[in-house]
What we know:
There is one protein chain. The protein is of the alpha/beta class. It has three domains: 12-75, Winged helix-like DNA-binding domain superfamily/Winged helix DNA-binding domain (Arc Repressor Mutant, subunit A); 98-127 and 376-483, Aspartate Aminotransferase, domain 1 (Alpha-Beta Complex); 131-371, Aspartate Aminotransferase, domain 2. Helices cover 40% and strands 13% of the residues. The protein is built from 15 helices and 16 strands. The protein has helices at residues 12-25, 38-45, 49-61, 101-111, 131-145, 159-171, 186-198, 213-221, 239-248, 270-282, 340-350, 356-367, 370-396, 426-431, 462-483, and strands at residues 65-68, 72-75, 117-118, 182-184, 204-209, 225-232, 236-237, 251-256, 287-290, 315-320, 332-335, 402-403, 411-415, 434-435, 437-438, 451-455. The strands form four sheets. An eight-stranded mixed β-sheet has the order 4-11-10-9-8-5-6-7, sandwiched between helices. It has a four-stranded antiparallel β-sheet with strand order 12-13-16-15, with helices on one face. The longest helix is centred in the last third of the chain and has 27 residues, at 370-396. 49% of the residues are buried.
Amino acid sequence: xxxxxxxxxxxxxxxxxxxxxxxxxxxxxxxxxxxxxxxxxxxxxxxxxxxxxxxxxxxxxxxxxxxxxxxxxxxxxxxxxxxxxxxxxxxxxxxxxxxxxxxxxxxxxxxxxxxxxxxxxxxxxxxxxxxxxxxxxxxxxxxxxxxxxxxxxxxxxxxxxxxxxxxxxxxxxxxxxxxxxxxxxxxxxxxxxxxxxxxxxxxxxxxxxxxxxxxxxxxxxxxxxxxxxxxxxxxxxxxxxxxxxxxxxxxxxxxxxxxxxxxxxxxxxxxxxxxxxxxxxxxxxxxxxxxxxxxxxxxxxxxxxxxxxxxxxxxxxxxxxxxxxxxxxxxxxxxxxxxxxxxxxxxxxxxxxxxxxxxxxxxxxxxxxxxxxxxxxxxxxxxxxxxxxxxxxxxxxxxxxxxxxxxxxxxxxxxxxxxxxxxxxxxxxxxxxxxxxxxxxxxxxxxxxxxxxxxxxxxxxxxxxxxxxxxxxxxxxxxxxxxxxxxxx
Length: 489
């Protein structure tokens, strides 16, 4: 057991800081690791708890550790250059259609390639797979419901699952009636129904920029146009830019993820979200809220749904269990606001109903408390993985590379040097056994060529570090090739 030197001129709290630095240097502590508790270190060093806390507070002030309520202090990635907002460099956009469909298809295909580390997909459930618990519950459901498990269900979904979802919204202050909720085949169907409720072919839909490529492709498939609105790495979509967009274009609806954007990981405060809803409803513009990541928050409290602040019923909330429990179950839901009748009609015409077996299983999962316990573990592991991935990128990528510091979710947004085009070496990465998501697919107009999205929602192993090292080398090599003077034969 190491004791502090009380005869040293150095303050005791500084010696504690030195001890933490030494532990990190020898590899006993890594980014994302939880520091020893105040009481444990106090007993080890035979000094007071306030002295230990003073050291931890100083480390937090320096940005070297972060405190998490009711959890403790955690080591952060020290060397990572954090991606900062760059509004001055934003160039205003015009409504457009998708220009990167081919690359989107390649990214989807790469997810299922054998012997490939899939860092290009956002599948946070991998950090804590609940497959065994869900399998056990599904067997119980099958024995209970027998032939009903393979029959058609009601178009709006299982009443008990809708009740569970309503309870969860009511706990956040949203007055949701279970009969208002529509169960869908994943959040993507919910988004599709919502868009069809409020817009038609040729209409302009405002989206965040960067924006999840699945939304972009959905808008294009429905024959609509996407209008990019500058989105801050910290606070989400910029309200000033949104006001400007509303003044310049006949926006039919907005499709935003104000509670944890993909790929930025940005999150509006509840007040900012309320201001956004108020602005849109003043102009009678519906808001379609993609809320799939709201349970994967890193802050003390879960963000409030935008639905809470709607006074005209123009907010439609789309979410699912795909990012939190079971991607393969394809079970999502829609809170349609004032568009309930249109939404139900489109659901009946589009897919009639959603599979009941998965809904019954998820209802049991929530009701027994397993879902919330699982979410608690997921959030802790994602926070840990986030810091580890940021540290790996800072180690293996060029010094000029900047990385987002997300407030939730499971992905990092990485900016390389301006001359780097990440899609140019996408196939080369696949051949080397690693996939990622090139930045240009997160913009319908093809912005963000020098960006990439990397997932930390993974089962951590040695292959992850090797994959990140491979990507870093590709960025180095690309930069070197681009900087070499051209030669003539």
